[in-house]
Specification:
By secondary structure, the protein is α/β, with parallel strands linked by helices. The chain has a single domain, classed as 3-Layer(aba) Sandwich (Rossmann fold), CATH 3.40.50.2300. Helices cover 37% and strands 16% of the residues. Strands 2-1-3-4-5 form a 5-stranded parallel beta sheet, sandwiched between helices. β1, α1 and β2 form a beta-alpha-beta unit. The longest helix is centred in the C-terminal third of the chain and has 18 residues. 29% of the residues are buried.
């Protein structure tokens, strides 16, 4: 898998089949002025191909962060999460579950399977944009990511916000 051409930008893999949510997420990052490269795949099979650098995704950059919907065609987000966290080459990539499901069993499963965060998609547009902006700010400027995402000791807090 190719290295990021822009190490100053968060490389995000958005695994989401709802085109409306994809547009809103892109808009939220743009509105908040966050430097994020967003790759989108719409089902679980393509997600795993992307992450493993196979098929059409042989030159895809390794993501710094995965935003994963649980309800996907061809292979569910639950299966994707399980496979990502069981793969030594992928397991260190943080996974944020971003889904409509508020089911206790989905929340418990996600954390047992080592998701880093579980977020229920807000139905209110302003709140949705705020939540996505918070995700971007946290993972871009506060959290330390494997391999570093600021070019300076892997500490994004060293970058000005």
């Amino acid at each position: 898998m190719a290295q990021s051409a822009r190490p100053d930008r968060l490389q995000l893999l958005l695994i989401e089949d709802n085109a409306g949510d994809v547009r809103l997420i892109r808009e939220a990052f743009r509105t908040n002025g966050q430097e994020v490269e967003i790759a989108v795949v719409r089902d679980g099979v393509d997600a795993l191909d992307y992450l493993r650098g196979s098929g059409a995704y042989v030159s895809a950059p390794r993501p710094d962060l995965i935003l994963l919907d649980l309800n996907l065609p061809r292979k569910s987000g639950r299966e994707v999460l399980r496979e990502v966290k069981a793969d030594d080459g992928l397991s260190a990539i943080p996974v944020v579950i971003l889904t409509t499901s508020a089911a206790d069993e989905d929340i418990a499963f996600s954390y047992r399977t080592h998701a880093n965060t579980y977020i229920i998609k807000p139905v209110n547009l302003d709140r949705f944009l705020e939540v996505i902006g918070s995700i971007g700010a946290y993972w871009s400027h506060i959290a330390c990511l494997p391999g570093g995402n600021d070019g300076e000791n892997g500490n994004p807090a060293a970058r000005p916000v």
